[in-house]
């Protein structure tokens, strides 16, 4: 192991003690600081956001469950202060990185995180810490899904949860790549928000009585044959029914906490398809050179198309209030945890 500074034996971390759907069972504890082995690095964390996927994880509703107790947090940024064996690990030593948690290890809501070297992306100097901390989950997912739409030569996109941070990124990327985006929201104030703040041209409210008719008209007019679906449940059925023949639902979330619901006739007779999108899997399918290229392109857009509004910054020891603030009003922006020891 190589290091650039002394590593403390213990440090602070948010610890998830049990999976609880009602309220996150977390507390800040002093935990052992793990040391990296081959292919691993130790990151001295700077900041980490709270994302919808984090909330789902603490409730036990995410697609991945880890052995408890465990430190939550899927992404953040920090400095690689220690490296195990391997070329990539040693290359990252001393560098500021955007980093993600592994599928089995501890997460980013801590002073220090042990992770795989392939879960880290070196950062350009022009990228601010708060941008870097939120670079992976939303920006990379938005980029990946729009890339899927472009690769599939779809003429237009439908997206649900369009008023979310990720949804706004998809709107901006749609403009950048000249692909129309039909935005589905559930409240009238979200319609106005996207029209006024994002200059979104196509916004439909799923709570309106004429939603199905309005959505179908737009989907056929623009020939929107791919949907980026974050809600699931009955809304999936409505989206699928509104889209043209041979359309595709790309499911990346389940905010409704319900199963994807689609009429069999849409699958059988309309030849519509459903598949999932998970960023981790999408990135694993890319070569090293492709990952470097994608990371470079995303970093250039972190202050513009892929920017994220922050509604609050909180220290680790205020985790309960931070979680409540974000869950009560996700549309207002991210809550960013300050992780520096």
TrEMBL record:
InterPro entries tied to this protein: ADH-like_C, ADH-like_N, ER, GroES-like_sf, NAD(P)-bd_dom_sf
Pfam families referenced in this protein's UniProt entry, alphabetically: ADH_N, ADH_zinc_N
Gene Ontology MF term list: NADPH binding; oxidoreductase activity, acting on NAD(P)H
Residue ranges of domain Enoyl reductase (ER) in the record: 22-337
Oxidoreductase is among the record's keywords: yes
Alphabetized UniProt keyword annotations: NADP, Oxidoreductase
The protein's name: Alcohol dehydrogenase
Organism phylogeny: Bacteria, Pseudomonadati, Planctomycetota, Candidatus Uabimicrobiia, Candidatus Uabimicrobiales
């Amino acid at each position: 192991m190589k290091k650039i500074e002394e590593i403390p034996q213990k440090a602070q971390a948010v610890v998830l003690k049990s999976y609880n759907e009602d309220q996150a069972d977390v507390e800040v504890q002093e935990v052992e600081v793990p040391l990296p082995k081959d292919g691993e690095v130790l990151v001295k964390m700077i900041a980490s956001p709270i994302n919808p996927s984090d909330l789902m994880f603490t409730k036990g509703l995410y697609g991945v469950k880890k052995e408890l107790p465990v430190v939550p947090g899927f992404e953040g940024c920090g400095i690689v202060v220690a490296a195990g064996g391997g070329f990539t690990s040693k290359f990252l030593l001393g560098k500021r990185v955007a980093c993600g948690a592994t599928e089995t290890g501890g997460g980013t809501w801590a002073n220090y995180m042990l992770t795989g070297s392939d879960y880290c992306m070196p950062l350009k100097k022009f990228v601010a810490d708060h941008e870097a901390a939120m670079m992976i989950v939303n920006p990379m997912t938005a980029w990946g899904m729009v890339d899927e739409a472009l690769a599939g030569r779809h003429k237009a996109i439908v997206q649900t949860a369009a008023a979310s941070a990720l949804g706004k990124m998809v709107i901006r990327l749609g403009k950048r790549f000249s692909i129309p985006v039909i935005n589905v929201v559930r409240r009238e104030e979200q319609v106005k928000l996207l029209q006024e703040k994002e200059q979104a041209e196509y916004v439909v409210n799923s709570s309106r009585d004429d939603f199905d008719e309005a959505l179908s008209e737009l989907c056929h007019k623009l020939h929107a044959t791919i949907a980026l679906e974050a809600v699931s449940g009955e809304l999936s059925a409505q989206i699928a029914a509104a889209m043209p023949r041979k359309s595709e639902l790309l499911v990346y979330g389940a905010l409704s906490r319900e199963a994807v619901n689609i009429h069999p006739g849409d699958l059988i007779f309309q030849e519509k398809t459903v598949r999932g999108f998970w960023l981790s899997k999408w990135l694993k399918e890319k070569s090293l050179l492709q990952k470097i290229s994608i990371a470079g392109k995303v970093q250039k857009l972190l202050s513009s198309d892929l920017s994220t509004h922050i509604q609050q910054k909180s220290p680790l020891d205020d985790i309960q209030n931070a979680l409540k603030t974000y869950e009560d009003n996700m549309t207002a922006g991210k809550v960013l945890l300050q992780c520096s020891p």
